[in-house]
Amino acid sequence: MRILYFTRDYTTHDHRFLAALAETDHEVACLRLERRGHQLEDRPLPSKIEKISWAGGEAPFNWRDFPRFYMDLKRVISEVKPDLIQSGPLQTAAFLAARTGFEPLVSMSWGYDLLINAERNAAYRWITRYTLNHSTVMVGDCDTIRQKAISFGMVDDYIVTFPWGVEIEHFTPQEYPVPAGKSPLRERYGWDEDTFVLLSTRAWEPIYGIEVIARAFTEVVKERPYIRLLMLGNGSQAGLLRNIFSQAGVQDQVHFPGQVSRADLPNYYRAADLYVSASHSDGSSISLLEAMACGCPVLVSDIPGNREWVDPGVQGWWFKDGDSGDLERMIIRTVDEERGRLPGMGKLARSLAERRADWKKNFPELINAYNLAVEVNRAN
């Protein structure tokens, strides 16, 4: 099968999908809608993936470019002659593909497109409904996304749901790759066994509730001065976060490693006692799955996507979305009352990741979605 993989930008997730597709017998050509201000993935396209040059892919997407991109996409389709197009997110790349009338079209939801963008305004609601109504099959990563797609008119039988998952052999607990013992990262920071380490890996953007974590931590550390916070990443709220920590006088208790490579990322999960995410919207969060695969218990916002993965008191806990006071209370409760249970909870988190979040086991579901789309298209 010849597949045209049409995505918004080139991210770590795109690289993972394309690398897996490159190992199949399918011929895959990749089309990129835009290039945003910073490179999201520094690894090149897998060698077997054909890069398509066209009118887009070199600058941020702007709706005024839509007519030009539409015409050039039709040219690309005519020249590439794909048997199937996979495209997402729904309101940009997938919408463009849907407008060409090409079938079969496998639309892929990236989570935020259905959970946030679809409800932005009347225009986005129309675009979302149009794209789904012109998709042969839709792929999503959790039941929350599935139900949202159904509410916009997607037929349930034509939705394929599977968590994108993580590389289980890469994201492992401390005892898997090396003998159990002290974390090298904790030793580097000079943290002894009494130090309690919180870890945040989400981008510093409003949707991820990073400010909620910052405000909760400034209160927690007043009562429990031995707690530390690792805040990976960067983003538009960098100034706000640093101001919160500075005003509270807790700069020495917060550490900013910056953007961490995929190779080093497991070491940060292994060094943490508790992974924290205050995201206001998520499907199956890859960061959450990485933490669980590394045997790190989790404390996450009470939103539908997280509820599909975390059973309170088993792999971790929930706190009220957007409520820094509740997050503060849950952190203190974990430190004071639940700390002894954390190693066992970490093992349960790892076990769940092995059962449900193994990328190698989950990827074949994408091929199943392709086959379903081809069958439905032939039947019609």
Explain how this protein is built.
By secondary structure, this protein is an alpha/beta fold. It folds into two domains: 2-165 and 359-379, Rossmann fold (3-Layer(aba) Sandwich); 184-356, Rossmann fold (3-Layer(aba) Sandwich). Helix content is 42%, strand content 15%. The chain has helices at residues 12-22, 66-80, 93-99, 112-115, 122-133, 143-151, 184-189, 210-223, 238-248, 265-271, 286-293, 304-307, 324-338, 342-356, 359-362, 364-379; strands at residues 2-7, 27-32, 50-51, 84-88, 105-108, 137-140, 159-161, 196-200, 227-232, 254-258, 274-277, 298-301, 316-319. A seven-stranded parallel β-sheet has the order 3-2-1-4-5-6-7, sandwiched between helices. Strands 10-9-8-11-12-13 form a six-stranded parallel β-sheet, sandwiched between helices. Helix 8 packs across helix 13 (324-338). The radius of gyration is 22 Å and the shape is elongated. The two termini are 19 Å apart.
